[in-house]
Design a protein that fits this description.
alpha/beta, Rossmann fold, 3 domains, 8-stranded mixed sheet, 7-stranded mixed sheet, 28 helices, 48% helix, globular, binds (S)-3-Hydroxyhexanoyl-CoA
Length: 695
């Protein structure tokens, strides 16, 4: 074995040269990998004893793409294009041996090879779109030539990988193997040599793209079909244009067009935000004082207390991950109702073709309902999801303390209450933690894990690990009212309320946020969640919210009553502006002596989002969040902040903190309201010309 570069080795197995990439953890195409491949191919080509070349990878996966950390830095030779030209132009057959995930630039390497052999468990994809990019090393030109235009469009624009059986059907791989992938590829290469098979260059294939040539309607139709889910993103449009170029231009010109479209994306703010977010999401898994090797409890059995909407949704997450879960409810009818809803949810997914009925039964089979609290005794984790009232929660925790295994983790799904006080109801506060799921709990990816003052490292590591196991994105936060997400949301809500009293209307406020990229604005969100909940809480606390109270007094509780801030047609969730509500708003403004004025969209946006950033700064200073990027992860996964704007803290940095602070000071002067006082951390960073994310 010869080391070609720090990450590529060259080996010989008979007449086959084997180039092995070894660049952990995911064999990304860093400069030394490109260089190693380039030199390895050159050496193997020059060696008369070599008749074929196999490219394979060590470790857990084939090349998972370009090295994302190199984007934005000056390009370092050799470029990936140069390497791929060399591979494709080799006079000796080159075979890719694929295991794990061949993604992005990794799949593009395989497409420059003459043949591909894939492990049965391997996955193949071009996920660049998720980074706000497009496959920029020939992927948009070669993939359609192999799998055809419809499949290529679907793969490139969704970014989702396909499995080996699918890849075989579509001709993306030539052979699928159950055995060791490198050995299988070497055997395949020997066959190619023995049979004197021609070098199959994908660039020369035309039969699968011919049909779409000169047919712009195919692309227009596809564009229309993805319009809703790609709204606001820049990359999908460029991906489609690049595939269209593959169909209509000669290969070399298509490559040139791909390059232009790629460069435009690489320099776009959207891609910058999405690449930032890729690392932010992974960073959130790291907790400075709870290192990755902290032992987490193995969760083999879970229990959920409460069969309400939240409890049912949480139980579904465990069943989806194959973990048996017991749902404990006090009253049998509430239990039946709760489990009935779970079944209905699964059946709805099955009716959309995303689950088979056998899957539904399998998952329902993992969920056991009971009214007997003793059922929690063998659970490794117990998640409480009962009424949001401290005395009730404490009673439940005291009871669980007497029943749970000594080493069980006991979690509360509270969204507002003090986790430390809840933990104090037990004699084992070190085993207690908050696990704040977001509604609907079986759908929303965010999980705020709330660290109590006494939560042990094992408890924290367990909540983080099991969170990932049930397909959530867990972010660790500290104890305070509303934790990170809802605490910031509250600031936005306060301004939304003020804006409608000063002259804006709910549909204008909401439109500003949907134009920004949120799926919905605060008023439509209130209507969806139900306005009665907040009304009841306000009444209990003796707090008033003049417009919301008047709306609730009319029995307008939101979508469920067909009217709230907006009205709704039967069976339709589209919010329709309602003159009755506008009248209420104007009446309330008048009664409060406010002279209404037109408010520009820009002011609305700043007044809604700047206070959130300011609250984020307080949250950071109080160490409720570990890092600014964690706040961004919370907002993207929990509240629909558009990922192509990175998250509130990243967004604030792009605006520049001095400008943001100055605008807040203007609002403060205009309103005379201390609400607008910049948080000390924000003020300090602005003075220093720094951002939240500067190291
Ligand atoms: C591209 O290819 C452009 C081309 O078209 C051509 C351009 C000319 N680079 O996710 P994990 C790190 S664009 C650098 O936790 P998993 C990651 O940050 C690229 N680093 O593991 C993490 O670091 P740390 C297209 C990368 O097993 C560690 O590896 N490709 C890269 O859950 C482990 O990652 C993609 O978009 C990278 N490309 O999942 C694929 N990838 O440990 C992106 C990962 O310090 N990657 N890291 O936190 C993935 O989707 C997943 O990482 C993968 C493994 C599925 C591969």
């Amino acid at each position: 074995m010869t080391a070609i570069s720090q990450s590529v080795d060259l080996d010989r197995r008979g007449a086959v040269a084997v180039l092995t990439v070894n660049n952990p953890p995911v064999n990304a195409l860093s400069q030394h990998v490109r260089q190693g491949l380039h030199e390895g191919i050159t050496q193997a080509s020059a060696d008369a004893a070599v008749k074929a070349i196999v490219i394979t990878c060590a470790g857990r996966t084939f090349i998972a793409g370009a090295d994302i950390t190199e984007f934005g830095k000056p390009p370092a030779d050799p470029s990936l294009h140069t390497v791929l030209d060399l591979i494709e132009g080799s006079s000796k057959p080159v075979v890719a041996a694929i295991h794990g995930t061949a993604l992005g630039g990794g799949l593009e390497v395989t497409l420059a090879c003459h043949y591909r052999v894939g492990a049965k468990s391997a996955r193949f994809g071009l996920p660049e779109v998720k980074l706000g990019l497009l496959p920029g090393a020939g992927g948009t030109q070669r993939l359609p030539r192999v799998v055809g235009v419809p499949k290529a469009l679907q793969m490139i624009v969704s970014g989702d990988p396909i499995g080996a059986p699918d890849a075989l059907t579509f001709g993306l791989i030539d052979e699928m193997t159950d055995g060791e992938h490198t050995a299988a590829a070497v055997a395949f290469a020997e066959k190619v040599i023995a049979e004197k098979r021609p070098l199959r260059k994908i660039r020369d294939l035309a039969d699968k793209i011919g049909e779409a040539r000169g047919k712009p309607e195919i692309f227009a139709e596809f564009r229309k079909s993805v319009a809703r889910q790609t709204r606001g993103f820049r990359a999908p449009g460029n991906c489609i244009k690049a595939v269209e170029a593959a169909v209509n231009l000669p290969f070399a010109e298509g490559l040139k067009r791909e390059r232009e479209l790629f460069t435009e994306l690489l320099n776009s703010p959207e891609s910058k935000a999405q690449r930032y977010f890729f690392f932010a999401e992974r960073e959130a898994a790291k907790i400075p004082d709870v290192p990755g090797d902290t032992p987490a409890k193995d969760i083999r059995k879970a229990a959920v207390i409460g069969a309400g909407t939240m409890g049912g949704g949480i139980a579904m997450n465990f069943a989806n991950a194959g973990i048996p879960v017991t749902v404990v409810e006090v009253a049998p009818d509430a239990l039946d109702r709760g489990l009935g809803i779970v079944r209905k949810n699964y059946e709805a997914t099955a009716s959309r073709g995303r689950l088979t009925m056998a899957d539904v039964e399998k998952r329902m089979g993992l969920i056991t309902g009971t009214t007997d609290w003793n059922a929690v005794k063998d659970a490794d984790i117990i998640i409480e999801a009962v009424f949001e009232e401290m005395p009730i929660k404490k009673e439940v925790f005291a009871k669980l303390d007497g029943l749970a295994k000594p080493d069980a983790v006991i979690a509360t799904n509270t969204s507002t209450l003090d986790v430390n006080e809840i933990a104090s109801a037990t004699k084992r506060p070190e085993s207690v933690i908050g696990m704040h799921f977001f509604s609907p709990a079986n759908v929303m990816r965010l999980l705020e894990n709330v660290r109590g003052a006494k939560s042990s490292k094992t408890t924290i590591a367990t909540a983080m690990t099991v969170g990932r196991k049930i397909a959530k994105v867990p972010v660790l936060v500290g104890v305070c009212y509303g934790f990170v997400g809802n605490r910031m949301l509250h600031q936005r809500g306060t301004q939304a309320e003020k804006l409608i009293l000063e002259g804006a209307l709910p549909h204008q406020v909401d439109r500003v946020l949907t134009d920004f990229g949120f799926p919905m604005g605060p008023f439509a969100m209130g209507d969806l969640a139900g306005l009665d909940v907040g009304w009841r809480i306000r009444k209990g606390r003796g707090v008033k919210s003049p417009v919301a109270d008047r709306i609730c007094e009319l029995g307008r509780f939101g979508q469920k009553t067909g009217a709230g801030y907006f009205r709704y047609e039967q069976g339709d969730r589209t919010p329709i502006p309602d003159t009755d509500v506008e009248k209420i708003i104007v009446d309330v403004s008048t009664s409060m002596g406010i002279t209404r004025r037109p408010i520009a969209d820009e002011e609305i946006l700043q007044r809604l989002l700047y206070p959130m950033v300011n609250e984020g700064a307080r949250i950071l200073e109080e160490k409720i969040a570990i890092r600014a990027s964690d706040i961004d992860v919370i907002w993207v996964y929990g509240y629909g902040w558009p990922v192509y704007r990175g998250g509130p803290m990243f967004w604030a940095d792009q605006i520049g903190l001095p400008a943001l602070r100055d605008r807040m000071l203007e609002f403060k002067k205009q309103s005379g309201d201390d609400f607008w006082a910049p948080a000390p951390l924000l003020a300090r960073l602005a003075d220093a010309g720094k951002g939240f994310l500067d190291k």
